[in-house]
Amino acid sequence: MKTQRWMARVGVTLGIAVFGLVSTASGQECPEHVDSMSVNRWPSSPTRIEVSGSYAYLGGHSFVAIADVAHLGEARVVGQVEARAVVDFSVSGNRLFVLDSGCTGGKPRSWCWSYLNVTDVSDPERPEPLLVGHSLESPPRQIEVSDNTVFITSGDGLRVLDVADLSTTPFEVGFLNSPWEPSDLAVESGHAYVTVPDSGLRIIDVSDPTNPVEAGVLDTVWEAHDLEVSNGFAYVADGAGGLRVIDVTDSGNPTEVGILESDIDVMNVAVDGSLATVGLAHPGVLIVDVSDPANPSRKNMFITEGPAEDTALTGEVAFAVTGPSDSSGFGGFRVLDLSVPDQTIESASFDFQSSAMDVAVSNAVKYIANGDSGLYVVDGSDPDETIGEFLDTPGFAVGVTLHEQYALVADDHKGVRIIDVSDTKNLIEVGFVDTPGQARRVAVLGDYAYVADGDGGLRIIDFSNPKAPVEIGAINIPELAADVAVAGDYAYVADGHLRIIDVSDPTDPVAAGPSEQVFAKSVAIEDGLLYLAFSDFHVFDLSNPSEPQPMSRKYIGYEATDISVSGFHAYVATRRDSFGRPGGVDVFDILNPYFPSRVGRWKFDGDGWAVTISDDRAYLAGGQPGVVVLENGCLTTYWVEIVTHDDGFHGSQWRSDVVISHGADRRVGFDFILHTVDGDITAGASVDKGEQGVFEDIVGLLGYEGTGALEIQASHPIRITSRIYSETNPGTYGAFLQGHRSTDCFGGGALFGLRQVEGEFRTNISVTNTTDETREVWITLYRTDGQELVRYSVEVEPGMVVQDLQPFEDRAGQPNLGWGYATVEGGTGILACASVIDSRTNDALIVPLLQ
Question: Of the chain's two ends, which shows fewer C-beta atoms within 10 Å, N or C?
Answer without folding.
Answer: C
